[in-house]
Amino acid sequence: MNKKTIFFIQLFFTLLVCSFLVIPVFLSVLAGVTQNFFVGIKSGFTIRWIVEVLNLYTDTIYLSLLIAITCLLLTLIIGIPAAYVLARVGGRISRIIEETIVLPIAVPGLAIALALIIIYGGFRDFRTSWYFILVGHVLYTLPFMVRSVLAVLSSFNFKEMEEGAASLGASFWTRFITIVLPNAKSGILAGSLMVFTLSIGEFNLTWMLHTPMTKTLPVGLADSYASMRLEVASAYTLIFFIMIIPLLLGMQLLSKDKI
Amino acid sequence: MKYYDYPKLFVLALPVAIFFVTFFIVPMIQLVIIGGSGEIGESSYLSIINKPRHFESLLATLILSIAVTITALIISTATGLFLVRNIFPGREILLSILTFPLAFPGVVIGFLIIMLAGRQGLIGWITKALYGDKIVFAYSMLGLFFGYLYFSIPRVILTIMAAAEKLDKSLEEAAKSLGASPYRIIMDIIIPALKPGLIASGAICFATSMGAFGTAFTLATNIDVLPMTIYTEFTLNANIAGAASLSIVLGLVTWVALFIARSLSGQTVAVSG
C-alpha cells in the first residue's frame, strides 16, 4: 500500500469515530425542532417543543445557573488559597493533602452522595434546600480548581519573586494579591471554566441529593428522558447543549497549546 | 520569609480544611462504619462476593468496563496517532469533535445512545428500511457498551495524543532504514513508547466505566451494573448498609485505578459518566 492509501484509510476511520460522536448530537438537535420525529422532518420544523420545555423546566435552568455560579465563587474563595498553600509548603505532606482533595473525583458520586445523605439527611431544612446540592458540587469541582491553579504555580518560580518583594517590604497579603494571583491567572481561568461546566452538567451526585423542589437541569433532563415524548426530551437536550457548548469551546481554546 | 508566614498560610488553608473535613472526611468515615453495621456486620463487605446478585452485578460491570477500555484504547490509539502525525486541512475540527464530549453528563450520553439505537433511533430506522426489521439495542448491554465508549474515547484520545507527541521519530526512521516492517515498527517501537500513556488512559477509562451512573441510569433499567445495584439497594430496598458497603468497595476500585493513572501520567479526569 502506498502512503496515500494508508492516509485515506486512517482518515476514513477517524471520520467514522467522529460521526459516532456527532451524529447522535445532530439527531437530538433535529428531533428537538421537528413537529413529529417519528414521521420525520417532512412533518415540518417547529419551536413548540422548545417553548414547552421552557414552560415546564425553566426553574431547573435557573437553579443550575445559580448553583454553578455559587459553586464557582466558593471554589475560587477556598480553592485558590488551598493551591497556594500546597505550592508553598511542598514536599510529602502537600502531596498527601493534594491526594486527599482529589479523592471526590476518584470516588463515584453515588458513594459521596450516600455519605452526605446518611450524615446530614436528618437536617430537614438543609436537606431540602439547594445548599445540599451545592455542597456536593463544591466537593466534586474543588479538585479541578486546586489542580489547575497548582499546575500554574508549579510552573514558575513564584517563591523567588515573593522573596524579592518581601525584601522590599511587601507584606504577606500584598504579595499574595499582587504576585500570586496575577501570575496564576491562566490557571484560575481554566479552573473556573472547568468548575462552571462540570457543575452545570453534574448528575451523579445531584440525582441523589435533589428533592422535588430542588431540580437542576440534568435532573430535569433525566426526568424528561423517562417520562416525556422524544421531541420534548430532545428540545430540552438542545437547550442544554446551547448552554454548555460555548463553555466547552472556551475550554478547548484555553488548552489549545497543550494539545 | 519562610517561618513567620506559616500562621498566615494556616489561615489560608483553614476554609478548605473545615469544608473538606465536615463534608467529605467525616461523612466517608461514617459511610464505612454504616457499611459494616447491617444485619451481617462487617461481613457485608464480602456480600459483593457472597451474595449472588451482587457478585453477578460486579462481574457484569467488570466485563463491561474491561471491554470498553480495550475498545477505547484501540480506537483512540489509531485516531490519536493519525491526528498527531498528519497535518491536513480540517484536522482542528476533527480534534474538537473528538474531545468536546468530555464534559457531557452521563445522562445526556445515555439519551444520545437512545437517539442512535433506541425505538425511534437511527439504526432502527436504517435496519427497517433495509431489512424490514427494526434493530433496537439501546437498553441492552450493547447499548451501555456504546454509551461508555462514547464518554471514554475523548478521555483516552487526549492522553494518547499527549504521549504520541513525545515519540522519538528518529527511532522509527532507524528501524525503517534497517528494513523493519510497519507491523514490527508498531509493535516494537510505537506501542512500547506509548505504554505509560496507554496504561494511564486505560485506567482512567476503566475507573470511569466502573462508576458510571448517569448513562446506566438512562439506559440500564433492566441491567444490573454496580452503580445501579447500589442505587436500587438504597432507594427501593432501603438497604442502607448494603448500599454503603457496595459503594465503598466500588470507590476503592475506582480510586486504585485512578491512582495508577495519576502516578503514570499526572492526569486526572473526572469519574462522571
Summary, kept brief:
The complex is a heterodimer of chains A (259) and B (273). Chain A is mainly alpha-helical and 259 residues long. Chain A has twelve helices and no strands.
Kindly provide the radius of gyration of chain A, computed on alpha-carbon positions and rounded to a whole number of angstroms: 23 Å
Strand content of the residues of chain A, in percent?
under 5%
Number of strands of chain A: 0
Terminal residue distance of chain A: 30 Å
In angstroms, what separates the terminal alpha carbons of chain B? 45 Å
**Would you tell me the structural class of the helices and strands of chain B?**
mainly alpha
**Main beta sheet strand tally, sense and closure of chain A:** none
Outline of chain A, from the CA principal axes? Answer: globular
Quaternary assembly: heterodimer
Helix and strand run of chain B: HHHHHHHHHHHH
Number of domains of chain B: 2
The residue-averaged pLDDT of chain B reads 86
Extract low-pLDDT stretches of chain B: none
Note the total helix count of chain B. 12
CATH class category label of chain A? Mainly Alpha
CATH superfamily of chain A: MetI-like
CATH architecture annotation of the largest domain in chain B: Orthogonal Bundle
Major sheet description of chain B: none
Order of helices and strands of chain A: HHHHHHHHHHHH
Description:
The complex is a heterodimer of chains A (259) and B (273). Chain A is mostly helical. Chain A has one domain (58-258): Orthogonal Bundle (MetI-like fold), CATH 1.10.3720.10. Helices cover 81% and strands 0% of the residues of chain A. Chain A has helices at 3-32, 48-89, 91-106, 109-120, 124-127, 130-154, 158-167, 172-183, 185-201, 204-209, 217-227, 230-254. The mean pLDDT of chain A is 90. Chain B has two domains: 1-35, no CATH class; 47-265, Orthogonal Bundle (MetI-like fold). Helix content of chain B is 75%, strand content 0%. Chain B is built from twelve helices and no strands. In chain B, helix 7 crosses helix 9 (182-211) and helix 9 runs antiparallel to helix 12 (240-265). The relative contact order of chain B is 0.14. The mean pLDDT of chain B is 86.
